Amino acid sequence: SYLPWFEVFYKLLNNLADYSTKGQTNEMKELLSVLYKHPVPPANGSITVQMIPYFIAPDPKALPSIPESRNLTELVVAVDVGNLLQLFASMLFERRILIYCSKLSTLTACIHACNGMLYPMYWQHIFIPVLPPHLLDYCCAPMPYLIGIHSSLAERVRSRALEDVVILNVDTNTLESPHEDLKKIPADVVAGLKVRLKRQAASAGSGVAHAFLRAQTLLFGGYRDALQSPEGPVVFSNELFLSHKSQSMREFLESAVHLQCFKEFIDGRLKMLNQGKEPDDVFEEEVLHCGASSGAC
């Protein structure tokens, strides 16, 4: 499915597994048929099917919460704050990233949760939650990627000519990186993110997701100051975006404006604005919150 409804589908699969275990093949087929024919509900809309308890369609604007979000929960349980910071920086700079794990469900959860770190941006490159053995040469690709590998294939992957690859081993909670990306992000942003993650990592709620959102807001929330509409459509000015910034922030943004995830984010915002629509999501709410407090989020 194209719908990122991980929790809903996890529950549905459990129901289907129960039917399969009990040999109730007809009931399983009937449930699949009913779900296939049912129209996609709106955000927060509920679906009631006679054979299973009702479920509610997720709100795409809501931040993932622990423990409701299995993806984020598994990532936070398996990976410590230090490695989460390194992983976030590697994602932000669009590196080649390999993630190893011996449990496929944890592997896919971590891969999808990593993508969520970038919100309101999204990974724009090769994205393979579980790479099959016959496609291991993808690990030698010259472009950025985020790929999950079962731990049993780790040695076969390492025997290949890997260049500038960031490797996270979820089983051992170890991360190897040839880059120093974390040092390229303004120190105050990293320090704030670290404090918030340490405070929220063991807590229920959306605190972890909000910590990454706050970091993204501090880094990119000033994009609106760089919007111009000189007798025509709204455009984005790199020069304005880089002006009036601290030296460390300016150095970071000079690299960031060339990243594909940032370009796609700006293009998406410009498209909305030029269609007469006002961007309305939790990122924009966070930008307003930070602006209201003089930027001291």
TrEMBL record:
Q: What GO molecular functions are on record for this protein?
A: guanyl-nucleotide exchange factor activity; phosphatidylinositol phosphate binding
Location in or out of the cell: Cytoplasmic vesicle, Clathrin-coated vesicle
Q: Which GO terms describe its cellular component?
A: clathrin-coated vesicle; cytosol
Task: State the UniProt keywords alphabetically.
Answer: Cytoplasmic vesicle, Guanine-nucleotide releasing factor
Check the record and name the PROSITE patterns matching this protein: DENN
Q: InterPro entries, from UniProt?
A: cDENN_dom (IPR001194), dDENN_dom (IPR005112), DENN_C (IPR043153), DENND1A/B/C (IPR040032), Tripartite_DENN (IPR037516)
* GO BP, sorted A to Z: endocytic recycling; endocytosis
Q: Which domain of life is it from?
A: Eukaryota
Query: What region holds the UDENN domain?
Result: 1-276
- A Pfam family annotated for this chain is DENN
Q: What is this protein called?
A: DENN domain-containing protein 1C-like
Q: Which organism is it from?
A: Sinocyclocheilus grahami (Dianchi golden-line fish)
